[in-house]
Amino acid sequence: MKVKIENLVKRFSDNTAVDNFSCEIESGELIALLGPSGCGKSTMLNMLSGILMPTEGKIYFDDDDVTYLAPEKRGVGLVFQNYALYPHMTVLENICFPLEIQKVPKEERIARAKKMAELVHVETMLDRRPGQLSGGQQQRVAIARALVKTPRLLLLDEPLSNLDARLRIEMREEIRRIQQETGVTTIFVTHDQEEAMSISDHIVLMKKAVLQQYAAPQELYDEPMNSFVADFLGNPPINKTFGVMNRGKIVLDGGCEVAYPKAVDLDDGHRVILSMRAEAIVVEGPSEAMAEGVIEQTYVMGKEVLAFVKLGDFSVRAYIPAELQLTKGQTVKLSLKNKGVFVFDEETGERLK
Amino acid sequence: MTKVAKVHEDGPKRTLKQMIEPYIYLLPFAFGIIVFTLYPIVNVVLMSFKNNYDFMSRSFSGWGLENYIYVLNDSYFHQALANTFKYVFIIIPISMCLSILLANLLNQKIKGSAIFQTAFFLPMVTSTTAVGLTWRFMFNNNSGIINAMLGLFGIEPINWLQIAGNNFYALCIYGIWAILPFTIILLLSGLQNIDPLYYTAAKVDGASSTKIFFKITIPLLAPTIFLVMCINTISTFKVFNDLFPLFSGPGVANNLFTAVYYIYYQFRVTRPPRYGRAAAAAVILFLIIFVMTMIQKWVEKKTKY
Amino acid sequence: MEKFKANFKLSMVFVYILLIFGAIIMIFPFFWMITGAFKTTLEINLFPPVWIPSSFNLDNFKYALQAAPFARYFINSLIAMVGSVSVCTFTTILAAFAFSKLKFPGREVIFTLLLALMMVPFEMLVITNYQTVISWKIYDTVWALIIPFTSSIFYTYILKGFFDSVSDSLYYSARIDGCSNWKYLWRVLVPMAKPSLVTIILLNAISRWNSFLWPMIATINVSNRTLPFGLYAFVNEGGAKTELMLAASTITVLPMIILFLFARKNIVNGVARGGIKG
Fold it and tell me: Is B27 domain-assigned?
């Protein structure tokens, strides 16, 4: 099912949680709603599920306007962060519960629940109660319960944040597998960029109630539309430096000059942000040098060395080949690749071509 | 969870059914509370200002303070208050000390704690009347077990029940026995909430068990002790039920009038019943309890760690 | 180390001695009541007292049941208890749910006011309630023992506390599946609240069974009395024989003793949580 959101606004008495939000989600995709805490992504999810009603705007499921439709009439499945399993019911009873409410005959609902349990791999623990299950198993049961009524849309609120690190990786792949097997359009909320990057088809990145960029993970990483997007994605975090244009060169605060060819057309005196991914910085490479810096610190990490290089007031991360044998205090020449280096307007944060 | 809680406030637009629904759930509950709690409170306050209120005809001669003036000048009422305060001042300190000791003993790693708990807590669930009547038999002048035990120590039999003064002590002994279970339970649960790490730390530091008791247990238990003391003060202030099984009423020549008994006396014993006076006494009793509760809340706030 | 161990053992002996002594004092009246119920008139009046009755026959119970309608009192107590506790549990569940999970204007204010009402002593309400049952013409009937006790702020407060602790996500989860409030309450919340409900029912049952003041005020006819008041009247009006009084007392306390033996933990925890309401 396709989801279309038009100019959606949600205002609470004291703040605006979602502001003029529009996007279209293709049928059968796995979408990550990504952003720092308090950015409005949970509010967004609650408006899709119908727990919350928007202040303005429209939500369409395919061609149906569901903006003000009651939650139970939308045909959505929702998995909460704490799973919200009924502790006094067995796994089977939990999965059956939505069907019981829809008055599906007993035999049919047990058959459907069992099939769902097999899909999420909990078929061997149908008689247990949630308290006897691990976090990952509870998560599987919660997903099965949400899917058993064959919803048009599956919503997951921070599905992995209550799990420990190893389980988290396992479960995110499981979510991907279950989503692909069922083909249900799925939206999950997360604040973890790695989680979003690894499994989703598209990412909706939000900040302070506003949609920042809606794109495929790789595109988001390669072509961030603004400084926030660039900062939010990537590990290690992107190197962010500030400077001013002077005769085609960027003069970083603290005095270091960077001759970055793509910035050559900008007006003198224009303040910019120069953001560079660590892997886009080449130290002592064959191509022409664009800046010079002093090595502050090095960490050997197997075949590569992570170095902190001082550029003006800023300390930037770069990977250097171990065989170069660079040490602390040495001055090095740097050049920048085309990919992974971005110039933003300091005031607006917008990308400058 | 705060996120979801916040969501609640702006939930789906309410239909008429949804707006009425909460009140339907509250209706059966509200019926009982309004008729048997709220209305009586209003009524008793109003009644206390009605002069010469007649219950049957619901008529009265006018509004005024006559009932209060009567009650406040009534020597029975003075005696009732004096007895009640005296009772509270004897019961509370003794029962608290005994309970703190016993709760600490029960909190040790002991075998058979189920048996001890059963023994210590049983009086809490059993009828005051039945147990009180048994105590009356135990206090009996001629064949009572208490005088028999005292006799073993060479003490002459005491007429516990039929001599004014003695009967007050009998009431106190019974009162302490009856309040111990409740007090011990609350203190014990307070003790169980103290992190055992404090004790381990103190033992490592070489503190003696007496020192641990006075320097760690008591200060950490202080909020509970105070809370229990307040609850008990209020409940012992309402001493009334015990008078019936022990003495069939307020003692010898009414020497054991208590505050609540005075209310009962005004509307059930006196002929004709004096509802206005009973109401005035009830309001005064409530004011005293109100002040006690306020002190309790105030200190509770002050002592929160 | 050796010395420490010895000291430790000595202090534990001391603990046990004190505890056993205390336990004997607390339990003694029950021992005396029950053994007394088997003694003959002669044994009861002997001084120094007889510790163990010469025979354990049920004659005293038989005579007591003949001397006053204790069977009737027992049934009255039972009806009053079951009636008021079951209705009260029902109203408590509904009200606790409304206060915990449903939204309506003034919810917090109303609940705070209710908590303040808990401060008012029952003794103050008695006068008006007496008038009410008379004007409703249920004075001296079993209804007078049931209807005034069909709602309780105290138990609603305890149950609301439990309902509050249940995550709202369960509620929304059920709502998205199309579950009504009514169904959510009975299918999800109530089964989850079983331990709290058991506690509430036990505490309520105990206080109803033992209540003395209200039955004394609200009933007058012998056939409408409950056990505690009937027992008191039996002694007070008839100048009954001590051993029969003890037999009747035993009948009165026995159900609660049995209840306590089976549900001790639950009752003790309940009392520790909120105190008992008389």
Answer: no
Please check whether residue B178 is in contact with residue B95, taking contact to mean a CB–CB distance below 8 angstroms.
Answer: no
CA A196/CA A200 separation, integer angstroms? 6
Residues of chain C contacting residue B16, judged by C-beta atoms under 8 Å apart: none
Domains: count for chain B: 1
For B182-204, what is the mean pLDDT?
A: 87
> A150 has which bridge partners?
none
Write phi, then psi, for A83 (nearest 5 degrees): 70, -30
CB hemisphere CA count around B72 (13 angstroms): 9
| Cβ–Cβ under 8 Å, residues A20 and A210 | yes
Please identify among residues 135-154 of chain C the ones whose CB lies closer than 8 Å to any CB of chain B. 147-153
C-alpha dihedral sign at B138, B144, B148, B153: positive
- pTM of the entire predicted model: 0.85
Helix/strand/coil for B59: coil
Residues C166-176 as b/e (b if ≥16 CB within 10 A, e otherwise) read bbbbbbbbbbb
Answer yes or no: are the C-beta atoms of A329 and A295 closer than 8 Å. Answer: yes
Cα–Cα distance between B212 and A300 in angstroms, integer? 54
* Token pair in block for residue A322: 């171990």
Is-contact C231 B129, C-beta < 8 A? yes
Find the residue in C nearest to B281 (Cα): C124
* Beta carbons within 8 Å of B19's beta carbon, 6+ residues apart: C104
* In-domain check, residue B80: yes
B134 vs C29, C127, C267: nearest CB: C29
Domain extent for B252: 71-302
Residue C57 corresponds to which tokens in the numbers above?
């026959």
In a domain, B35, yes or no: no
Task: Report the C-alpha gap between C169 and A79 in whole angstroms.
Answer: 9
What one-character-per-residue DSSP string does C186-243 give?
Answer: IIIIHHHTHHHHHHHHHHHHHHHHH--HHHHHH--SGGG--HHHHHHHHHHHH---HH
Decide: A34 and A206 in contact? Cβ < 8 Å: yes
The residue to which tokens 């005296």 are assigned: B86
B143 has a pLDDT exceeding 90: no
Average pLDDT, chain C: 88
Angle, helices A165-182 vs A106-119, to 10°: value is 120
| Helix C122-135, helix B39-48: angle, nearest 10 | 100
Pairing mode, if any, of strands A257-258 and A239-246? unpaired
Contact yes or no for A230/A238 (Cβ under 8 A):
yes
DSSP string, A92-129: HHHHHHHHHHTT--HHHHHHHHHHHHHHTT-GGGTTS-
Encode burial over A122-154: b for 16+ CB neighbours within 10 A, e otherwise: bbebbeebbeebeebbbbbbbbbbbbbbebbbb
Q: Is B17 on the interface with A (CB under 8 A)?
A: no
Q: Is B216 in contact with B209 (CB distance < 8 Å)?
A: no
Give the Cα separation of A248 and A265 in Å (integer).
Answer: 6
**Closest-CA residue in chain B for C211?**
B127
- Please name the member of C120, C150, C272 whose beta carbon is closest to the beta carbon of B186: C272
Summarize pLDDT for B288-298 with one digit per residue, the tens: 988 988 888 88
pLDDT for position B59: 81
**Nearest by CB: A72 against C170, C176, C191:** C176
Which of A58-72, A281-295, A306-320 has the lowest average pLDDT? Answer: A281-295
pLDDT band for position C2 (cuts 50, 70, 90): very low
Task: Check CB contact of B11 with chain A, cutoff 8 Å.
Answer: yes
pLDDT of residue B184: 93
Cα four-point dihedral sign B6, B11, B14, B18: negative
- Contact between B255 and B164 (Cβ < 8 Å): yes
Whichever domain contains B85, its CATH number is 1.10.3720.10
Confirm if C223 and C69 have CB atoms less than 8 A apart: yes
